[in-house]
């Protein structure tokens, strides 16, 4: 099941939101050792609390978290502008009414989970963006994630690269289009 809601709507999606922020704490803090603030086994930051982002969450049939992302309009505060800029000193400020920032991509795959969870997330992201007039999303990802994105049909356009904690990171943009959405759906054998 796919849930789409904003921070201000989180209480209507309480279980989904709580599962997501707990998954983020586990993945980002425990597994990846990122410098994120975790309280009560939950990873929630000021971008969640202050800027009312949009969340897309894919759940397993039992209601547990499978994968999720957070979206913010680039016309307001973004992590790229306020946090990641220090890793990319020569990066242009990427913003516009047609551009959203995607952050906090979180996957909690279990043995036996279908790969289609990622496809469902990316197809829903495409649908939402196209309906909202968004034709570009931007995000920062670790270089090994590039292969996963390419296999998914995303084909990110690298803007610049850097390192975080000795690991290569990439700032990229992603084109949102009907053909791209259908390609992603086809790769995951989903109806778009």
Automatic annotation (TrEMBL):
InterPro entries: Acyl_CoA_acyltransferase, Autoind_synth_CS, Autoind_synthase. Keywords: Autoinducer synthesis, Quorum sensing, S-adenosyl-L-methionine, Transferase. One of its GO terms (molecular function) is N-acyl homoserine lactone synthase activity. It catalyses: a fatty acyl-[ACP] + S-adenosyl-L-methionine = an N-acyl-L-homoserine lactone + S-methyl-5'-thioadenosine + holo-[ACP] + H(+). It comes from the Bacteria. GO terms for biological process: quorum sensing; signal transduction. It is an enzyme of class 2 (transferase). Its EC number is 2.3.1.184. Belongs to the autoinducer synthase family. This is Acyl-homoserine-lactone synthase. It comes from Acetobacter malorum. The lineage of its organism: Bacteria, Pseudomonadati, Pseudomonadota, Alphaproteobacteria, Acetobacterales.
């Amino acid at each position: 099941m796919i849930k789409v809601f904003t921070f201000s709507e989180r209480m209507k999606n309480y279980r989904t939101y709580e599962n997501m922020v707990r998954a983020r704490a586990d993945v980002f803090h425990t597994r990846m050792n990122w410098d994120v603030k975790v309280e009560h086994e939950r990873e929630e930051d000021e971008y969640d609390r202050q800027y009312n982002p949009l969340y897309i969450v894919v759940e397993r049939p039992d209601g547990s978290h499978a994968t999720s992302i957070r979206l913010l309009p680039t016309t307001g505060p973004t992590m790229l502008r306020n946090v990641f800029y220090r890793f990319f000193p020569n990066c242009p400020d990427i913003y516009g009414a047609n551009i959203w920032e995607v952050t906090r991509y979180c996957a909690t795959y279990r043995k036996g989970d279908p790969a289609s969870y990622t496809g469902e997330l990316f197809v829903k992201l495409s649908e939402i963006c196209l309906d909202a007039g968004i034709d570009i999303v931007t995000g920062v990802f670790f270089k090994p994630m590039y292969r996963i994105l390419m296999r998914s049909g995303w084909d990110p356009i690298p803007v610049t690269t850097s390192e975080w904690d000795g690991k290569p990171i990439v700032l990229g943009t992603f084109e949102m289009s009907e053909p791209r959405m259908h390609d992603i759906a086809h790769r995951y054998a989903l109806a778009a």
